[in-house]
Each structure stands twice: as structure tokens, then as C-alpha cells.
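Protein chain data
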Amino acid sequence: ADSANAAVIANTAGVTSIAIRDLKIDGNGTNQSGNDQHHAMFIVTATDVSVSGLEITNTDGDGVYLRLGCSRVRITDNYVHDVDRIGFHIPASNNLVVSGNTLVNCGQTAIKSEPDATETADADNIST
């Protein structure tokens, strides 16, 4: 087995009312195997999700990856930096609010929204 870490938050399929707040997540990027799917948070088909007050750094993948129809998600007041891929990857999510975040030094892009996502982004501090 390699020394890489999997996502910190995963296996959320069908879960309702998740609150993740006030944590520092260090992805241990120097010991990753080079797999760009080592996300700090990988949230799948969850409803009523709140992600706030986090510092996410040093991942091989994304900071936060929402997948397969997450809904009613709030991503607020987080500091994401030095991630190899995308700060917030939000394909196919509905009723999403992204606000008050700082995203710095994201390898590909800070926020990636794909088709079928409906979101509001307000007052985020993004630098590359």
C-alpha cells in the first residue's frame, strides 16, 4: 500500500444534515502517491450540508468535491490553499451558496462549476 491518504470526509451518499466546521485539514501532500483524487472532502448525494471555518491545505486533489446531486449546501468562511487541483469542485449540485471564502494557490482553478449546478458565489477572495 502507498502512504497516501484518502478523503477526510467520504461515504455521504443519502445523508442529510451534515455540519463540518472549525477544522484544519492537511492532506499530507508530500507523501501522496500522485493520484489527483485524494480530495480533502468528497461529499456525494448529501442534503443540507454546511462546510464552514475550515483551513484546507496540501492535498493532491480538490479541497472540497461535491458530487452526484448534492443539494442545499453552504460553503462559507473557509481558507483553502496549496491544493493540487481545484479549491471547490461543484458539479451537479443544487441550491448551493459559496460565500466569504479565501482560495489561494489552487493548482487548476479556485472554483469549478459544471453543467447542472445552481449556486450563488458571493464575496469570495480568490487569487492564483
